[in-house]
Specification:
Blueprint (H helix, E strand, L loop, with lengths): L1 E3 L2 H17 L6 E3 L2 H5 L3 E4 L9 H5 L2 H18 L4 E4 L2 H14 L3 E4 L10 H8 L3 E4 L2 H9 L4 E3 L4 H4 L6 H7 L8 E5 L4 H21 L4 E6 L5 H10 L5 E4 L2 H7 E7 L2 H8 L4 E5 L3 H10 L7 H6 L6 E3 L5 H13 L1 H17 L5 H12 L7
Helix pairs in contact: 1-18, 4-5, 10-16
Length: about 375
C-alpha cells in the first residue's frame, strides 16, 4: 500500500515502485497518489494532489478532507492487510498512518519522512516508537532519526541521479536560440500560482533595476509544468520588459546561468547539484512564517543552507524579499566573480552530503527486504 499526497511525492513513489516491479511484477500496489503512480499500474483510490498547499495555516482549510482521506486509508489498511506500507512525504498525514500501521502490526517504510531535523524532533521519536523504517535522503535526517532510536537506512537523495546536463553551454544556448555572448540570469518563481503571485512581481522589479546597470545581461524565466505562458506574460507585460519564457529545460537553464533567482524549494537543491549559485526567495502567510521562525526556531529556509548547516547562498525572506535587495546582491556578484566562485565551491559540499547516487534502487531494495517480497510471485 502506498501513501503519497503531493505531486512530488507521487513521482518519487512511482520511481521507486517501478524498480520494485522490475524485480517482482506480481506485486499489487494500491492506495493514495496521483498520475505517476497510475502510470506504473498502481490502483489509486484517493488523489489528494488538488488540495496540496504551502504552510501550516493554509493546510487547515482542507482539514476535513484530509481526515476523510485518513479514515479511508485506515479502512483499506484493515481490510486489505498489505505486506508493507510505503509512506512518501506528506508528513502530518503519514505520521498518523504510520501509527495505524503500528497498531495493525503492519510494517511501514517512510521515504522523505517528517523534517524532524528542521523542527520538532519529537516527530522522530514518534516515528521510532511506531517501528517505521526510515529511508533517509538527507544526512541530518539520518542522524536525528537514529538518535531517536528509529531503524534508518541512508539511501541519499534521488535528485543526485536525476539532475544532469550532457550538453555544453554553447549547445544549450544554440538550442534555446539565446545569444551565446550574453551572460544569463534565470528566474524560477515557483510552481504554484500563489507562490508566483507573491514572488514574481518583485523579481521583475529587480530585473528592471539590474538591467539599468547591466544592459548586456539577458534574463530568462522558467515556466513550471502546468503554468500557462499567457499567465506569466501577464506579469511581464506590466513591467514593460523583454523576458524570454522557457519551458521544460530547468537543468539547462541552471547550467548556463551566472546564477538563478529562485523560490525556495526543490529547485534550489537541483541548482546546488549543478553547482549553480542562487538567491533564495520566500514569502508565506505571516502566521506560517512566525510559527516556523519562533515556535519551531527554523534557522534556514533554503535546502542548500539547511544541508550545509550554514548560509552558503543568501535567503531573502518575508520583508527582506524586495527588489532593491535582489538587485544589490545580483550586482555585487556580477561585479565580483570571486564571490560566485566561493559559493560554487561550497555548493560542492552540499552535493557530496546528498550521497553517492542510486537512491531509487536502494529504496526499492529496502521495500523488497522489509516486505519479504523479493522471492515471491
Amino acid at each position: 500500500m502506498v501513501s503519497a499526497g503531493e505531486i512530488s511525492g507521487d513521482m518519487h513513489a512511482a520511481a521507486v515502485l517501478k524498480k520494485v516491479k522490475e524485480v517482482n511484477d506480481s506485486i499489487q500496489i494500491f492506495g493514495m497518489g496521483s498520475t505517476a503512480l497510475k502510470e506504473i499500474g498502481a490502483e489509486i483510490l484517493i488523489d489528494p494532489t488538488k488540495i496540496s498547499t504551502i504552510g501550516y495555516i493554509e493546510a487547515l482549510k482542507n482539514l476535513k478532507t484530509h481526515f476523510k482521506h485518513l479514515r479511508q486509508m485506515k479502512k483499506l489498511l484493515r481490510e486489505r492487510k498489505p505486506d508493507l506500507v510505503f509512506l512518501v512525504d506528506y508528513s502530518a498525514f503519514n505520521m498518523k498512518l504510520a501509527k495505524a500501521c503500528s497498531q495493525e502490526g503492519i510494517k511501514a517504510v517512510n521515504y522523505f519522512p517528517p523534517s524532524a531535523w528542521v523542527y520538532n524532533k519529537r516527530r522522530a521519536s514518534k516515528m521510532a516508537s511506531y517501528g517505521t523504517h526510515i529511508a533517509a535522503v538527507f544526512p541530518m535526517e539520518r542522524d536525528v532519526y537514529r538518535q531517536a532510536g528509529a531503524e534508518v537506512t541512508f539511501v541519499g537523495h534521488p535528485l543526485v541521479d536525476i539532475v544532469e546536463v550532457e550538453k555544453s553551454e554553447a549547445e544549450i544556448k544554440k538550442d534555446l536560440k539565446i545569444d551565446h555572448q550574453k551572460p544569463i540570469i534565470t528566474l524560477f518563481p515557483g510552481s504554484r500560482r500563489g507562490e508566483i503571485e507573491s514572488l514574481l512581481p518583485e523579481m521583475l522589479k529587480a530585473v528592471r533595476k539590474i538591467k539599468a546597470k547591466k544592459p548586456e545581461l539577458e534574463f530568462l524565466l522558467s515556466a513550471a509544468d502546468g503554468i500557462e505562458l499567457e499567465y506569466l506574460n501577464s506579469f511581464i507585460n506590466k513591467f514593460d520588459l523583454e523576458l524570454k519564457i522557457i519551458q521544460k529545460n530547468n537543468y539547462q537553464l541552471m547550467q548556463i546561468s551566472e546564477f538563478i533567482i529562485s523560490a525556495s524549494g526543490t529547485t534550489t537543491l537541483e541548482a546546488s547539484i549543478l553547482n549553480t549559485p542562487q538567491i533564495i526567495c520566500y514569502q508565506a502567510a505571516l502566521t506560517t512564517y512566525l510559527l516556523a521562525k519562533y515556535l519551531f526556531k527554523v534557522q534556514f529556509v533554503g535546502l542548500p543552507n539547511i544541508i550545509a548547516g550554514a548560509e552558503v547562498v543568501p535567503e531573502l525572506l518575508q520583508n527582506d524579499f524586495e527588489a532593491e535587495k535582489i538587485a544589490e546582491l545580483s550586482l555585487n556578484w556580477l561585479n565580483n566573480k570571486e564571490e560566485l566562485k566561493k559559493i560554487k565551491k561550497e555548493l560542492q559540499t552540499v552535493r557530496h552530503k546528498l550521497g553517492g547516487g542510486g537512491a531509487v534502487k536502494k529504496t526499492a531494495d529496502l521495500l523488497l527486504r522489509e516486505g519479504g517480497l523479493k522471492n515471491r510471485g
